[in-house]
Design goal:
The protein is of the alpha+beta class. It folds into 2 domains: about 5-170, Endonuclease, Chain A (2-Layer Sandwich), CATH 3.30.870; about 175-235, Arc Repressor Mutant, subunit A (Orthogonal Bundle), CATH 1.10.10.10. Helix content is about 40%, strand content about 20%. The chain has a 7-stranded mixed β-sheet with strand order 3-9-8-7-4-5-6, with helices on both faces. The chain has a two-stranded antiparallel sheet with strand order 1-2. The longest helix is centred in the last third of the chain and has 15 residues, at about 210-220. Mean pLDDT is about 80; it is low at about 1-30.
Length: about 240
């Protein structure tokens, strides 16, 4: 019987990945799966996945520590990632922007054509997905045991999850066509500090009407229903 994505899987939960996890032991969901108990096994399996085929590579990684064996493998993958015709997409948590080692690695990957987005709604753990299958963990901490899933019936479900996570993720501010101007950033910061329209107008040398108009435009661009929500969304996008 073909595997069908569950609501938990497509909603970002871990139920569709692994049926149970106790300590470092992971129980996989299909017979065509095997645990990768150590960094050496993980590195070998990931390199083999990246060497096979030329399709897209999708990766999400929901940790803010740079100490994880999968991240080490991706750092060393280099041309094995960049040379794939299908391209590479990566989704990371917003918190990684403040981790110098990760931020530097991400900038290096982007310089070589890797697409990167950020999200506050990632499932626990991490995953690398290719046309050959997935390498993943649902562990809450780096160094959790990974599992290799090569069941062809499960691959479409992981593909659907990857697409959902990508659509939910935020485009980095420097890649946005609607990125705010410096004056708009200043305005958002002042509003976050609780300044009134009149106070913002005086500091920026604008009229009250102009401030209200710009704020309304910013709220629309952010998809916010209130000024408070606009501030939250602006922070999530890295605008302020």
């Amino acid at each position: 019987m073909p595997y069908r994505p569950s609501a938990d899987l497509l909603g970002g939960g871990s139920a569709g990945f692994v049926s149970a996890q106790r300590g470092t032991d992971m129980v996989s969901i299909t017979a065509d799966s095997r645990p990768l108990p150590g960094a050496v096994e993980l590195a070998e399996a990931t390199r083999r996945f990246l060497a096979e085929g030329t399709g897209e590579v999708f990766c999400y990684w929901n940790y803010t520590s740079s100490e994880d064996p999968l991240l080490d493998v991706l750092r060393g993958a280099g041309s094995r990632l960049w040379d794939r015709e299908g391209g590479v997409r990566i989704v990371l948590p917003h918190g990684t922007r403040g981790v110098p080692d990760i931020a530097e690695h991400v900038a290096w990957q982007q310089d070589h054509g890797v697409q990167v987005r950020y999200s506050s709604r990632l499932p626990p753990g991490a995953m690398v997905l290719t046309e050959g299958g997935a390498i993943l963990t649902t562990g809450l901490q780096p160094d959790s045991t990974y599992v290799l899933v090569s069941d062809p019936h499960v691959r479409p479900a992981f593909g659907a999850l990857a697409q959902l996570l990508w659509q939910r993720a935020e485009i980095p501010p420097d890649q946005r066509k609607d990125a705010p101007s410096e004056a708009e950033r200043q305005m958002l910061r002042m509003l976050m500090q609780g300044l009134t329209d009149s106070a913002v107008a005086r500091q920026l040398g604008m009229s009250d009407r102009t401030v209200r108009r710009v704020v309304a435009q910013l709220m629309e661009r952010l998809g916010a229903q209130s000024r408070f929500e606009a501030g939250v969304r602006a922070v999530e996008r890295g605008w302020i």
